[in-house]
Specification:
The structure holds two protein chains of two kinds. By secondary structure, chain A is an alpha+beta fold. Helices cover 52% and strands 17% of the residues of chain A. Chain A folds into four domains: 63 residues; 202 residues, no CATH class; 307 residues, no CATH class; 185 residues, no CATH class. Chain A contains 25 helices and 24 strands. In chain A, strands 3-4-9-6-8-7 form a six-stranded mixed β-barrel. Chain A has a six-stranded mixed beta barrel with strand order 14-15-22-17-19-18. Chain A starts with a helix and ends with a helix. By secondary structure, chain B is of the alpha+beta class. In chain B, strand 2 and strand 3 form a beta hairpin. The longest helix of chain B is centred in the last third of the chain and has 28 residues. Chain B is globular, with a radius of gyration of 15 Å. Classes of the chains: A alpha+beta, B alpha+beta. The interface between A and B is medium-sized, with 24 and 21 residues.
Chain lengths: 876, 111
Amino acid sequence: MNVFQRLVRRRAVDREIDRELQFHIDRQIADHIAAGLSPEEARRRTRLEFGGIQQIKEEIRETTMWTPVENLAADVRYSARALKRSPGFAAAAMLALAFGSGGTTAIASVLNDLIVRPPRIFRNPSELVVAGEVSPTEPSSPSEVTAAVFDRWQSASTLRRVAAIRSLSLFVRIDREVESAGGQAVSPDLLDMLGAAPALGRSFSPGDDRLEAPPVALLSYDYWQRRFAGDVNVVGRRIEITGRAHEIIGVMPRGYALGWSRDGLVVPLSPDRIGKRDVAELIVVGRLAPGASIERARAELLALQRTAAEELPARGDGWTVRVDQLRGRSGLSGRGMALVFPLLFAATLLTLLATAANLAILMVARGMARMREAAVRAALGASRYRLMQQTLLEALLLAAGGGAFGLIVAIGLSRLMIAIAPGPVAPDFAVTLDLQTFAVAALIVGVAGLASGAAPALSAARTDVVDTLKGAIVPGRRPRRLHGALVVLEIAVAMVMLVCVGLFVSAYGRVLDYDPGFEWSHLITVRIDAGFIGSDTARAVNRGVESELAGRLRSISGVTHATIASIIPPSRGGESRAFVIRGGEARLERASARIADVDTNFFDTIGLKTLRGRAFNASDSAMSEQAVISDAVARRYWPSSDPIGAFIQIEGETRTRQIVAVVADVQFNASFNRGPVSYVFRPRSGFVADASGPSWSNQSYAVVRTASDPATFAQQIRQIVRETFPDRPMPAPVTIGQMLQQGANEMLLAASLIVPMVLLTLALSAGGIYGLIAQQALLRTRELGIRAALGADRRQLVGLVLRDGLRLAQAGVAAGLVGVVAINRLVMSVYAGVTWARPSVVALCALLMAGVALAASYRPASRAGRIDPMTALRYE
Amino acid sequence: MAEAKSDLLQGTLDMLVLHVTALAPLHGYAIAQRIQQISREALQIQQGSLYPALHRLEERGLLKAEWRESETGRDAKYYALTKAGKKALEDERSNWLRISQAITLVLRTVD
């Protein structure tokens, strides 16, 4: 009979033993009767002689081989019963487990899919990299790549293949309707290089990027779903893109979201779409050659970039190259989320730590509470091994229950986070639960639970049975020291988290109350989308019509100003472009700034002060050879001299411009980063064909200043724009106030990820700290009783317990401060000059934690004050 | 633990059980009765020890059990010695005799 059969046959065997014993009993009774006893007496005697039937059965079971398994089953039942007897403990432990493992999993899963992991649809994603050029003025945000550099990168040996993506803003005519659509022009072999197959139809063929090739297009998955309702017959249809008929040949794979403007159409990157050779507009994605490292690729790409210098005469020195792992949905998060990522990771880790600590606390507390029970069982013959096993089983049961619940929490929480996350999360975004993280989280928490469960079990096993039963459980210094350490850990973790939240809140507050540097409250703006314009002449014509629009907008009553600009502050718009300074004293210096094309009345309209010189004057015939710079540019490149009158040459232009004015800084504000934007303003009118236009989108903004609430003008503005451009799509006008709010929303996304986690940790920690301190006071009941018996009064007893809590709070806050300083270092290393840990926030958090600790000690303390020496001493 | 509670020396109950079942298959009650009879009531067999011992011996393959009609007409579980049991009995018996002689010798010398 093997173990399994025995288990199955358990009942049958049980019955057989019953029958066998019953036979014996009956025979014995019969013999006693035969010997002359009355039936009652015979039965009584037999019962005495025989002893406990259950005990015999138990021993039979123990003597035969199947007992280990049997014992286990019994222990599981016993543990389950024990847990049922203390539902509070079981619920608390399982909740801690569930939220610890589930919460971390949810956050890790969302993060993973959003910013950490490369899209799964790509083959060997770890080989994929994103390469960018980095300007000396904005080293933390790599820019796109110029076509001149991209050409040279194609010969790189460290990259097996390279492809480029250029974002476009397109007009599409589908069945007579003109609409604007996002779009990308991509190298024909992009999908091939990524190793992803189109969701429908075919991808581009090698020659599709030639000018004379028949025009073809792919649809993005979302666009296909939304605009064509996922119609599979869409392949082969013809639509008009920028005035030219294109055949739809397929649909991009689901989950493809590289670069920007990815929702819409994808066309081959033909020479007419690649843009100016010296303007950085390409996102370059590559696959590392076998054995090549990112470092080596960077070195090679840098060397290749240098060879393009003569093709980029206006570009300054100091431009470098950055190569990053392709990460996140956009593929670009390896660059930008540098700060948020380690923070979230740290927060996740801390949550996990707090959870593990809490579970440990619960288990230790329970273990101590059950020492007497353990002693009783030991006295009754339970082996130490069995006692240990019992505790471990309990922990395992809890882990299983908590883990199962944790999965549910993980699913629910990740959905919730996606649902409440504003902005950048695309509709096709579905979180795949990161089971690996779940396993790791559950393991960490489970091991913590087991280890902490084992500690009291071990000591229970070692307990002197007699002493314990006599009631002399005197926990030594060890559990108290462990308690203390746990309290300190909890407080420290909670404090670091609190500081993080505090900073988020204050950063959020700054988003709301910051001063962008101009008078924004009465501004409303509308984007005018010219779509893709191939030639400079067409662009010049377009600018003329846009200026007419500004005139018509000015005629609305209640409108004081209207202007057209290529940027709309405070969004950090405008591409970063290099320029050369030709100083009066034959100085030649290379520099870079964001380029903005504005009308002459732009500065008046948005209320940006002119600090020095005189901004563009419409009557000045030389205006097209002038430039206005922002104060940030002036401070950087003319720290001790006057920039007015200096000459600069902007990348992509052949002419030289003279600086005529310095205007106040526009402050941008993005998450934790804020500061002045370096702008070089060019006049829009007097624009001639030798200047390259704004970047990929050919978007401009009509900016309108109103006398009253700007939002009430939206309808009229919309009407006029529609009349001026009947064949263009029409976005809704937004006020600058609304745009600022959007910036705040980005902040909210980060907050929506971090804050729930922090609150969870705080709740867990507060509970844990309370429980621990209460427990500590309980451990001292006997001591307090003695003190009370010796005449200590209520105040002294309360003070004793409170002081205990306060001491732990101090240690915890001190440890927390160390953590805060460490995080501060991390932040400073990522973003130089960002003040992160504000003393006021940190101090507030420290006070709060001390408050929690004190509040937690208050109840035990007041109980200690009421202690009755007699009860206390007897109780022990 | 079964042995510890027994009045008999560890292992001796097993030997006695094997001995009495060597003559004919017996049920538990009869085994207890027989041992008491033979020892002239000197050895009281505890049921709490007997049955675990029977099951252990069965488990070790020294006894084989079978349900059959007893002398009272009721089914009882009869234990019979197996071949292995027979051999074990021989071993135990010679072992026991050797040890008990040795012990007697020792006790005499000390006397």
